[in-house]
Design brief:
There is one protein chain. The chain is an alpha+beta fold. Helix content is about 35%, strand content about 20%. The protein is built from eight helices and ten strands. It has helices spanning about 40-70, 70-95, 125-140, 165-175, 185-195, 270-275, 290-295, 300-305; strands at about 100-110, 110-120, 150-155, 155-160, 205-210, 220-225, 230-235, 245-250, 260-265, 315-324. Strands 3-4-8-5-9-2-1-10 form an eight-stranded antiparallel sheet. Strands 6-7 form a two-stranded antiparallel ribbon. Helix 7 packs across helix 8 (about 300-305). It is globular. The termini are far apart. The relative contact order is 0.15.
Length: about 325
């Protein structure tokens, strides 16, 4: 045995021949605890990962586009069906309005009683407008339509003058905290025009006037302020106060641009027709002098226009209120 041999420091160890045919055992590699990468290797690895992710995303998008291109007709048909369902719901909601509250107006012409008009209010489709009309009919607003006149009789509708926003009417209304701002009515009118197509002021409908489509734009003028000239705008005319209402004797598409439908006549349409037969002041809006005066904002034209189509006879609401 080799470990029994004693060697002198000057002696060389004996030569031991190695057998090349004998297989040598290779020790398994020892795993390293920490792996270090160079900057170049990290850059290559990152770029490779990004390229792989990009190729997968492009492949996925290509597949989706291919699927979309495969059935364009089916997608078009599906979209048309959805639009048709939405349009049908809107049409049914606009056409199938159900009155939920009833109001009445007792009418007289030149002091002679003509009868009663019963109106059904649309509280579901026009909650703000129906509530406004109901408050004015019942007197809950501090003032009502009682002893107030119809001021305009047109071929397709009759118009009530509503409540004045000044004087005694305004003072009585202010006691209940009532104001004559019609912003909410205008918002409801705009939503109704967007959702419901076609003529909304059909024969027998009752509407509140919320805006004046014939109102001219503000006049631009120069004024002096603090020693400087500034451009200012002057309003010509006033907007409706949300208390005037109309009753259509025939289909009145001309009212769609200014009036919010709040109900319909349930009983007493013959009374409405009697109001429509009252003689009125002749309309002179076709005169070129009137057109020029209205165009430049002449106040005399505004005053004259108020007298057009005004009834010669007094048509008054003698009594009004809500029905149980």
């Amino acid at each position: 045995m080799l470990h029994h041999l004693k060697l002198n420091p000057t002696q060389k160890p004996p030569y031991i021949p190695q057998n090349h045919n004998q297989p040598t055992t290779v020790s398994p590699p020892i795993p390293k605890q920490c792996i270090k990468f160079s900057r170049r290797e990290l850059t290559i690895f990152t770029n490779s990962s990004l390229l792989l992710l990009t190729s997968q995303t492009l492949h996925r998008n290509t597949v989706l586009e291919a699927r979309a291109d495969e059935n364009p007709q089916e997608i078009k048909v599906e979209n048309e069906q959805q639009e048709a369902v939405t349009s049908q719901k809107s049409i049914s909601r606009c056409m199938e309005k159900v009155p939920t509250k009833r109001a009445f107006l007792d009418i007289s012409i030149e002091g002679k009683p003509m009868g009663r008009i019963v109106i059904g209010l649309y509280e579901q489709s026009a909650p703000v407008g129906a509530a406004t009309f109901g408050d004015l009919v019942s007197g809950r607003a501090g003032i009502s339509f009682r002893r107030k006149e119809f001021v305009k009789i047109m071929p397709n509708y009759v118009q009530h003058g509503g409540i004045r926003s000044y004087g005694v009417d305004a003072e009585l209304a202010s006691r209940t905290g009532r104001n004559f701002k019609n912003d909410k009515l205008v918002d409801e009118w705009e939503r109704e025009n967007e959702e419901c197509l076609g003529t909304k002021n059909l024969a027998g409908t009752v509407s509140i006037i919320v805006r004046d489509p014939s109102k001219p734009p503000p006049k631009v003028k120069l004024i002096a302020r603090g020693g400087k000239l500034e451009i200012d705008q002057e309003e010509v005319g006033v907007e409706p106060n949300g208390t005037e209402f109309t009753i259509a004797t025939k289909d009145s598409p001309e009212l769609d641009s200014s009036a919010l439908v709040v109900g319909k006549v349930i009983e007493g349409m013959d009374v409405v027709e009697k109001i429509g037969q009252v003689q009125t002041v002749q309309d002179n809006t076709s005169s070129p002098y009137f057109r020029v005066a209205k165009l430049i904002g002449d106040k005399r034209a505004v005053v004259a226009e108020r007298g057009f189509n005004r009834p010669y006879s007094k048509v008054i609401v003698t009594n009004c209120g809500l029905l149980e």
